[in-house]
Amino acid sequence: MISTRGRLLVALLASAAIVVPLGWASYSSVMPGTYSVMDMGYLDYGGGPGADPGATTHAGHDGPDTTSVADLVTDPERSADVRVDLEAKRETFSLASGRSVSGYTLNGRSPGPTITAVEGQLVEVRLSNASVPEGITLHWHGVDVPNAEDGVAGVTQDAVGIGDEHVYRFIADVPGTYWYHSHQVSHEQVREGLLGPLMILPQTDDEMADQLALVHIYEGIRTVNGRDGDVSVPARPGSRVRVRVINTDNGPMSVWTGAVPYRLVAVDGRDLNEPSTVVDESVVVTAGGRADLEVEIPEDGSAVRVQLGSSSALLLGGKRADVPKAPQPETSLDLLSYGSPAALGFDPDLADRRFEYSIGRRPGFVGGRPGLWWSINGHLFPDVPMFVVREGDVVRMRIENHSGDVHPMHLHGHHAVVLSRNGVPSTGSPWWVDSLDVADGESYDIAFVADNPGIWMDHCHNLPHAAQGLVAHLMYEGVTEPYRVGRDTQNQPE
Amino acid sequence: MRSAYRVLAYIIAIEVVVQAAAIAYALAGLSKWVSDGGTLDKAAMESEDTTFTGVVGFIVHGINGQMLIPLLAVILLIISFFAKIPGGAKWAGLILLLVVIQVLLGLFSSGIPQLAILHGANALALFAAAVYAGRRVGAHSQVPAEPQNA
After folding, report:
1. Does B111 lie at the interface with A, CB-CB under 8 angstroms?
2. Domain ranges of chain B
3. What is the DSSP string of chain B?
């Protein structure tokens, strides 16, 4: 009997040695029903000064020197120059091509209306929710708005429920190509159409025609401005056209023009310095990123075919049948050495903080579920770094990726400049980004000035990856977080 | 417990067959879809909306491989502690190890495609180990049950 009992005991203990740690790991990875993103993970000061010893650093701290996220708004005294009303609905709708899809609309269509502003104008958008059950927000992707206008549910506002509305106000400060999209249950709402283009034009007319090319996949069909297949737009022979490509999907997209030369004049809403003419190379547009290509329409009346991924294209001028699809060039333009250097406006070598954002993948539990999850600096969500900065800091960040997949990293509220890739320094135009593709095995050194106080997401814009925990935040000292996320709140930003 | 061990080992072996069938189906479907004019790039791959005959094969392969088979392997190991099969825990542990290696090879092959070669080979090793583990128990003459209580 003893030996049988002994055997059983050993078997039970061995089983417990497997089941208990797994069960505990699963249980302890379940998030509380309500929490502040400031309570996630651990504080990372990047070698800079820590918080004041007198103040507690996490959410809930109040003090004379603190500012709430909710108060970081655009000057309320100033009146708006551009006013837009957007009403969101969950419905089945027709794309511009007539194809019927089910998803979300803004003012009855998707992509939503183009918002156009001139540099310096104040844009005021009144967002109302007619019928989206989970609630909605709008994030101004690439516009470095004040924190309270950033549109992240549970971080900078509460999701807008059915029958409610929210007003966003921001100054269109830097000319360029941007877009807007929901940042509530974003991995579903963006995919299903809660998005639209935003264009900020310079005050001086550069005599170039503007052509938006917002690319989005609806139910497996890639579309340009809501139309699938080849999209023809008129253009005057001999004229120059600025094609503003917006990649709203979750993976990188190549853009090429066949034999027609082009110049890449801007990336992520920032003009490149002295861009040269490019022939037979593609431009890779990061998920969430934008690229502005300048092309000249041939005098002979033939069209320019701007291929947007392999399955859709924009045909500028001429006749549709004129231009066959050109094969994708074998090489893509390397922005590390494109254009000419120019002053950055700050010295990255005098960094106050140096952060590491190393993306890996390892087994574990997130939200109670086992799996192979994205890790940040070796930790799984929610045990991720909270990058702490002080206003005015020069910040360097090294983003490394050894996770087996490409990650389009998107820092809210700031543009960062690429200093080097895999240790090779940038020798071209200053390459400012808000969305940066970091391929597996790559590392990027980027730098930015902490000039926009608040609490900002710093996440993967392959939005399902963000929902799987590839999310960290950048936090300014002295900023408090009044909003909450979690299953017991209405806010699910990812 | 002995029969549970045997059945579970065979189920794991069958799961390996399902995996091979699912991925072959998916790749054939993808190939036909591309031949018929469908186009695939990273953005399309990342879109949950991309559909074609055989796409279910990718889904099955992913869920089976990353969730179900690891779970079955863990359960097999736990059962082996109670099943009084000489060497049973050793073989269950080996199966779990092969499963872990298989999952890692599968995941990291998207970054290093050469790993997929090992992924394919390791699948056969896992299949063989699972079949052998099951057969050892089935063959009573070779692996006698533990003598009853002394």
Report:
1. yes
2. 2-40+52-140
3. -HHHHHHHHHHHHHHHHHHHHHHHHHHHHHHHHHHTT----HHHHH-TT---TTHHHHHHHHHIIIIIHHHHHHHHHHHHHHS--TTHHHHHHHHHHHHHHHHHHHHHTTTSTTHHHHHHHHHHHHHHHHHHHHHHHH-TTTSPPPPPP-
